[in-house]
Amino acid sequence: MPYSDKVLDHYSNPRNVGSFDAKDPTVGTGLVGAPECGDVMKLQIKVNPDTGVIEDAKFKTFGCGSAIASSSLATEWLKGKTVDEALAIKNTEIVEELALPPVKVHCSVLAEDAIKAALKNYQDKQDAGDGAESRRA
Ligand code: FES
Ligand code: FES
Predict the structure, then answer these.
(1) How much is the pTM?
(2) Given ligand 1 and candidates 39, 103, 109, which is best to mutate, with the most ligand atoms within 8 Å of its CB?
(3) How far apart are CA 106 and CA 77, in angstroms?
(4) Who has the most CB within 10 Å: 14, 71, 80, 106?
(5) Range of the domain at 13
(6) Where in this protein does the record put region Disordered (predicted)?
(7) Ligand 2 pocket, 69 CB below 6 A?
């Protein structure tokens, strides 16, 4: 199946590969797997706690070219967005940007799930920091 130029570009030159320390309170980590194929994606954000802006994002994906391209693109889109803006990123936007064919749509869903999981992990950490005692009981 032919990959689009944008997929090939992100696949051969992936942006923001790597990891942050998952224990860092300003870091949110999302780790998700695709039931369709078993591919796994880890996506992390690093948030400025004062501004709520995502200052950096990294990913590691064990998967197909479309999954790697989707996560690479996601890290580019995440940088500079607030947590709320990041929540609005849709897998359909990734499909459109990368011109993914129907059988590869789930690869973009994996990226959206990874974004949401990373944001949730970050939010949970902030909540735990504010009201930890009552929550942990
Ligand atoms: Fe083989 Fe995704 S199905 S890498
Ligand atoms: Fe399963 Fe791409 S993530 S084929």
Answers:
(1) 0.90
(2) 39
(3) 19
(4) 71
(5) 5-123
(6) 125-137
(7) no
